[in-house]
Amino acid sequence: MHDKQDESVQSWIEEFLTARATRKPSPHTLAAYRRDLRSVADLAGETLTPPLPLDELSIDALSPRLMRAAFAKFAAPRAPASVHRAWSTWNNFFAFLVAEGVVPGNPMPAVGRPRAPLPQPKPLRGEQTPEELLAAVAAEAGRQRDPWPQRDLAVLALALCAGLRLSELLALRVASVTGRDGERRVEVAGKGGRPRTVPIEDAVDRVLADYVESRRRRFGARTVRPDSALLVDRRGEPLRRGGLQYLVESCYRRAGITDRVPRGARLHALRHTFATRLAEDGAGAAEIMRLLGHASLTASQTYIEVTAGQQRAAVRSNRTNRALAGLLGESVGAVSAAVGGGG
């Protein structure tokens, strides 16, 4: 419980982050909150006469005038998107303080903020790049020390054909893949605590089944319980953030497409490819919004519900699903024979 005698900004930042942690944000998001709060607070303390360190800066000192000065210094070397994100974090922080009865009002409306630029999609470059990536990874069997193409193909299929984020892939359980034949789907623990269901086509279902079977051969049936992590490393342990990023980057290198991955996109380029191809193949904004798990497409657009049938039709029309289906007809049997025997 917070000590009401300690009204330092530093103390209340930690209290706010503790409250936010109950919403299950990713570690990356929590780190960004802390960085934005501390960076601006440090600048606020430096602006005072005499300057005050963060642990001595009082919440009561954070007037509209001081916050404007601090944000002016913060904004000078940074991109508008970074300033907008920090402004939003501080706005949420003050809303929390008002709710806790710590301050009488929120000074952030008096602090200017740049308009948030719309995020630009960063799909893989090249019309056939996704197909080349899938084919290269499915055929890989000799150059790796411990090849596991079934697992690698499953990761790529979930990102390219279901649009899952990195954190969502890591959160998947074996039981997350549900439904009857022809109506298979993935239950996703989405960003911001918003669950969603993404339909998967037969090709993706076959890739996942082939991967689970290869995992059973490697580590035994007891390692494939419904509550087990779906994606594991070569020791059978749940994949972690760094391991998953390395796996995807390794797939890019093995396929020879590193020059076609937008800078900074990494695994997210696969999700953006999924969304871009949905749009190109005729899916509407409502289907794309629902499938990607976005609360809205723009700050002012309301959330639009669509039916499961519309979602499945949008996924079925995705060219990557069709390409994967064709690839499986040619190569999965060969891959299984090459790798499955090694256990």
Automatic annotation (TrEMBL):
It comes from the Bacteria. Keywords: DNA integration, DNA recombination, DNA-binding. Residues 119-316 form the Tyr recombinase domain. SUPFAM superfamilies: DNA breaking-rejoining enzymes. Residues 7-98 form the Core-binding (CB) domain. Pfam families: Phage_int_SAM_1 (PF02899), Phage_integrase (PF00589). InterPro entries: CB, DNA_brk_join_enz, Integrase-like_cat_sf, Integrase_catalytic, Integrase_recombinase_N, Integrase_SAM-like_N, Tyrosine_recombinase_XerCD. Signal peptide: none annotated. PROSITE patterns: CB, TYR_RECOMBINASE. This is Integrase.
